[in-house]
Amino acid sequence: MTLLDDVLRRETRACARLLRWIDDGLPEARTILKQIYRNTGKAFIIGVTGNPGAGKSTLTDRLIGRFRAAGKTVAVVAVDPSSPFSGGAILGDRIRMQEHATDEGVFIRSFATRGHLGGLTSTTSDVVHALDAMGWDLILVETVGVGQDEVEVQRLAHTTMVVMAPGMGDEIQAIKAGILEIADIFVVNKADREGADRTVNELKMMLDMGFVPSVETQHHGPVALAAESKQPRVTPGGWVTKIIKTIATNGTGLDDLVTAIAEHRKAYELAATDPEFVRSRLRQEFIDIYRRTLFTHGWSYLMHEDHLNQVIDRLVDRSSDPYSLAEQTVAALGRG
Questions:
Q1: Distances (CA, A) of 183 to 100, 156, 226, 330
Q2: The pLDDT value given to residue 117
Q3: CATH 3.40.50.300 domain locations along the chain
Q4: Would you state the pLDDT for residue 97?
Q5: pLDDT the model gives residue 28
Q6: Contact indicator for 94, 108 with CB cutoff of 8 Å
Q7: Which helix (H) or strand (E) holds 256?
């Protein structure tokens, strides 16, 4: 048996090794990702984002229990802040979700951001592809919870949940971060707190004012890649963003939330029968991978044979400018 075979059989050690390789950016990981890509596309991916303290982890833990009760296998990718010293994840969601630690139908893994912005790690989508190929029914992606840069999950998830809590100023933060444009479902958690109804009403008012998911715009030319990263995820036509109140600690509102997720999944799967919808999703996926590939290859080139210091030498003596040198480096990379 090869590592590839073991991964597709969801053998624990093989899966853990592949995910470690992916997180470390090893070339062996990309080789396997190429081979298993044809096995992806079966899992349903749920993004869980929102500000720190809103209760994302507790809510995720409760959802795991509901999905398992329905007979579904669940994988959780929890993105945690990085230690500034070790680069490792500071908070371990495997510790916060001990109730499911012995359940073979649940897989929970924490990844450190390592300075990557957007609420995810630079390899989160690769991790999700691997878990998808392994055969998990549902994949929950819980973002780091930094507030302002949490929108990257929009392009990865099929259903995006934004978790808020009353009294935290989340409504204003949502407008700043563009969160209102990516939510398929708003979850006002800790709904037993004062101000929960006001938070719901303010969200409804903002949605009524036009803060709704927008359809992807086509971009061309030199700004295409930059513009692409700012586009809201393509969302099923006709979907009206739902607002659900919950108290994750005691399970209040969980039935309504699970129902809303199921309804959005139905809408998504219906939209996925449209070839153009599928092409738009795959376009976003490819652009993200292409951007990461460009960066990785460009960085490797700069580090090879001291190219970076040669560039800096020319900047020090003012024999060239950084714009021309960057263009020349990219051109040299293309010839390599």
A1: 27, 13, 22, 37
A2: 42
A3: 40-273
A4: 58
A5: 92
A6: yes
A7: helix 254-271
What 3-state DSSP class applies to 110?
A: strand
**Token pair listed for 258:** 């699970």
Give the other-Cβ count within 10 Å of 110's Cβ.
20
Tokens of 172: 């204003």
* pLDDT for position 284: 86
The set of long-range contacts for 208-215, using a CB threshold of 8 Å and a minimum separation of 24, is: 211/175, 211/180, 211/181, 212/180, 212/181, 212/241, 213/181, 213/182, 213/183, 213/184, 213/239, 213/241, 214/181
Q: Are 130 and 36 in contact (CB under 8 A)?
A: yes
Give the residue ranges of the chain where pLDDT is below 70: 1, 81-98, 113-121, 145-151, 168-179, 210-234, 336
Q: Is 232 strand, coil or helix?
A: coil
- What's the confidence (pLDDT) of residue 220? 44
Architecture in CATH of 40-273 = 3-Layer(aba) Sandwich (3.40)
The closest alpha carbon to 193, from 244, 245, 234, belongs to 245
Torsion of CA 163, 208, 254, 239, to 10 degrees: -100
Considering Cα of 290, then 272, then 79, then 31, what sign does the dihedral take? negative
